[in-house]
Amino acid sequence: GNEFYPGKHDYYEIQIGNDTRPVAVLREGEPFTFEHRAAEREELLLGVAPLVEGSDCHLLHEWECLVTVRGAGGGEARRFRMALPYNGRGDTIAYYPGDGWVDVRVELGDFAGSDCEISVIFASKGTTSGRESVLFGVAGPQVVVRRGRAEAKKVVLISVESLTDLGYLEARYGFGNLANLERLSRDAVCYPRVYTPSAATLSFAASMLTGLLPSQHGIGDYGLAADSFECEVSSRRFPVLAELFKRAGFFTAFGGVQARFSAKSGWARGFDRYYQVFEKWSVSVPEIDWLIRTCRSLEGVDTFVYQHLDLLHEPLLSFGDRHSGRIYD
């Protein structure tokens, strides 16, 4: 079980591409079920995907997800069936290896006031009947209320590395016409005098997500092992920001770049969607349009979104680091 998600299955953090999510793992034909008392304007949100190793992709030709909502006492049932050809074996739509999670929305308003049983089940077609069963994932299943646009709560946290004095950027690096940042600063609280509790910036991610000082959370320079499971991980005794929002009923999402936000450091905890890219020059870096798309897709839903932007730090500015050996210096 899990504090934030229904059903009796255990949940695991599983990453497809750059997207890490809390996932219940199922074999094909194995049902994922839970009970829920439906209310007006409610929707079921979940991500689904086959969990197939790249070397086994040729074994799968098509996969299917069936979501069934059944009223109390075995009454009226509504079925939502989605079939996706795999590896391009389709004329109009196909799911390719590495495409990631397919996000599904199921409206529950027709069952308002009723106790419902909700089930998710998968099937697949392949090249041989004797092959092993394919595993599938149900990612972050939850029921949300989609209110009017003005009613929903949106909390957006953006950190920019390294965002410093705009006058300094203009004088030192020739930056000009930063109209959006200037407009934001006019509507913000600015701190002209700032003191740091740490001699390095690497500990800031832990401080942002736990609300603790480096001397309290104990995480310093974990950049050397951030892409491995040898890195320092925040203690589960400290709740992270996303967990607090989940307990308040929010949908949570993260998009960012930098090794210090690796899911392997434990920072995906509490996030329904955690999209993180290591390479700052990658075409997959989630820029501000990612934030806009995420907010629009969850319009009317209480949502907490955290985005970390690193483009201003590097590659645009190298800050005199002449010996790093990186391609963009």
Structural account:
By secondary structure, this protein is an alpha+beta fold. Helices cover 13% and strands 32% of the residues. It contains 6 helices and 13 strands. The chain has helices spanning 166-173, 179-186, 204-210, 214-217, 241-247, 288-297, and strands at residues 11-16, 19-27, 32-37, 42-51, 60-70, 77-85, 102-107, 115-126, 135-145, 154-160, 251-257, 273-277, 303-309. The strands form 2 sheets. Strands 1, 2, 4, 7, 9, 10, 11, 12 and 13 form a 9-stranded mixed β-sheet that branches. A 4-stranded antiparallel β-sheet has the order 3-8-5-6, with no helix packed on it. Strand 5 (60-70) and strand 6 form a beta hairpin. It is globular. Mean pLDDT is 81; it is low at 319-329.
The average pLDDT value, as a whole number, equals 81
- The first-to-last residue Cα distance is 47 Å
Elements, N to C (H/E): EEEEEEEEEEHHHHHEEHE
Strand segment tally: 13
Q: What helical percentage do the residues reach?
A: 10-25%
Helix tally?
6
Query: What class, by secondary structure content?
Result: alpha+beta
Oligomer: single chain
Low-pLDDT stretches are 319-329
What's the gyration radius in Å? 22 Å
What's the shape? globular
Percent in strands: 25-35%
Largest sheet: 9 strands, mixed
